[in-house]
Amino acid sequence: MKVLLISAVIYCAIATCFAQKVEFHDCGSQLSTINEVDVNPCPSLPCIFKTNSNVTLTITLTPNAAVSDAKSVVTGIIEGIPVPFPLPDENACNFMTCPLAPGTAVTYKTAIFVRPEYPSTNLIVQWEVTSSSGEVFCFLVPATISK
Ligand SMILES: *[C@@H]1O[C@H](CO)[C@@H](O)[C@H](O)[C@H]1NC(C)=O
């Protein structure tokens, strides 16, 4: 019992307890339901993204259709103006297991490097995964970039 408890605490310390579930707005998911969005670090909203640091993003979703190709599209909405955020790898299938099968939950996991040259600003992060068969998911999370 004691051993179990200790292992649970250690597991928690190295894994799940760092996951920070955030409230998000769905912006038009069609081919899946988003179950959870975790952003690390993001103890409260808006997420504060420090330049020169990595932010990890873990999304669990349950597809309602088969999807074999998927592309990540990220946009920063700054004072209402959408600014495309280029990703080093747009192939969303490199960050989750494809093809997606209806009813089988998958995890999409990625990290972004907050580059030192990014301006300090408030923004809404719009993270979308699209496919040839439609919008897989889309969510919005408010954030602040700070030095
Ligand atoms: C961010 O992640 C990249 C790739 O894993 C790593 O090389 C880099 O050292 C990390 N940077 C910081 C500031 O943690």
TrEMBL record:
Write out the annotated subcellular location.
Secreted
Q: Which Pfam families match?
A: E1_DerP2_DerF2 (PF02221)
Q: Name one GO molecular function term.
A: sterol binding
Quote the SUPFAM superfamilies the UniProt record gives: E set domains (SSF81296)
The primary location reported for this protein is: secreted
Its GO CC terms are: extracellular region
Source domain of life is Eukaryota
What positions does the domain MD-2-related lipid-recognition occupy? 24-143
> To which species is this protein native?
Candidula unifasciata
- Signal peptide bounds: 1-19
List, alphabetically, the PANTHER family matched: NIEMANN PICK TYPE C2 PROTEIN NPC2-RELATED (PTHR11306), NPC INTRACELLULAR CHOLESTEROL TRANSPORTER 2 (PTHR11306:SF68)
Keyword annotations from UniProtKB, A to Z: Disulfide bond, Secreted, Signal
Q: Which family does it belong to?
A: Belongs to the NPC2 family.
* UniProt record, GO biological process: intracellular cholesterol transport
Name the record gives this protein: MD-2-related lipid-recognition domain-containing protein
Q: Which CDD domains match?
A: Npc2_like
